[in-house]
Amino acid sequence: MRRISFVYVVLVVCFIVAVCFSFYFYKQANAYDRKLDAAVSSLPNPTYHFSLIGEEMNHEYWRLVGDGAKEVEQKHDVFVQYEGPSRSNPEEQLKLLDMAIKSKVDGIIVQALDENFTPMIDKAVEAGIPVITIDTDSPESSRAAYIGTDNYLAGQLAGKALVEDTNGQATVGIITGSFNNAHHELRVEGFRDVVEQEDGIEIVAVEESNITRVEAEEKAYNILTGHEDITAFYGTSSYDASGIVAAAKSLNRQENLYVIGFDVLDENIELLEKGDIDVLVEQHPFEMGQQSIEIMLDLIKGKSVQDVYHTDASIIRKENLDMWNNAKGEAP
């Protein structure tokens, strides 16, 4: 009986101690929250609130755009609200654009994937919100400026690389990210305008990947099985080259296949190092993000801005990867 009473007393004491500790830590947590709230409330609110709407948040390219914008945010009195669909979805981008207008942000930076963006951009401008297009332009809209790659020139660079590396002799398949996106159309147009001047180069098929690796592989597989004389591929979106390589490997056709792709994603760089990709067209999304915020600040402050700002595009081959890595290491 005494033993039971002793155990009961110990349990009661433990319960009281636990309650006391809980009360103590509850008070400490509340005190910390009050201090944190006071510290946050004492910080000045940013003068400007910008909305940056990208194409695909889970894409390395668009993460770099956001990183560039956020770096500039830290240097100025601005808050950049960076948003976008997890996967490419123009309708969701339009909803985010409409929300930014209703939120009365101070400026909007948006990728204008198709003609449906034009009236929404005009709506923002009519509401007194300046708009900059990024990566993909909407020249018919009331946007104040565009910043991004000169996509026609980038296509030309890819075409010149093919002519140079194949001595003007190739049977080519093209995988484009989309038939409806202006920047992919320009990349194909620039490429065509170069290679079609060569008698020894023929483009025999053009398919779209919808900017997915799976569809790029599927379309490349279909082209390879339908055209046994294919010797080269050109992909205009970030995932096209890796999809092309996967299709070629599944058919044991990669040995003598020349592949051009876009963007220096980690996977693309690895395939370039292995020799599975021959050329990558490099864009500069980090700089796009940086400059978009700087341009928007100039607009807000009443400074004059250009209609179009082009970031660089360049060709990377396996033999100049060391130089590219060194330059990347020195970049901010």
Q: Could you describe the 3D structure shown?
A:
The chain has eleven helices and twelve strands. With 332 residues, the protein is α/β, with parallel strands linked by helices. The strands form two sheets. It has a six-stranded parallel sheet, with helices on both faces. The chain has a six-stranded mixed sheet with strand order 7-6-8-9-10-12, sandwiched between helices. Helix 2 links the parallel strand 1 and strand 2. The chain is globular, with a radius of gyration of 27 Å.
Q: Number of DSSP helices?
A: 11
Strand content: 15-25%
Stretches with pLDDT under 50, minimum 5 residues: 35-43
Assembly type of the shown chains?
A: single chain
Order of helices and strands: HEHEHEHEEHEHEHEHEHEHEEH
- The order of strands across the largest sheet is 2-1-3-4-5-11
The total count of strands amounts to 12
**Biggest sheet overview:** 6 strands, parallel
Shape: globular
Head-to-tail CA distance between termini: 76 Å
Average pLDDT over all residues: 87
Helix content: 40-55%
Overall SS class: alpha/beta
Alpha-carbon Rg, integer:
27 Å
Protein name: Ribose transport system substrate-binding protein
Pfam families: Peripla_BP_4 (PF13407)
Subcellular location: Cell envelope
Organism: Aquibacillus albus
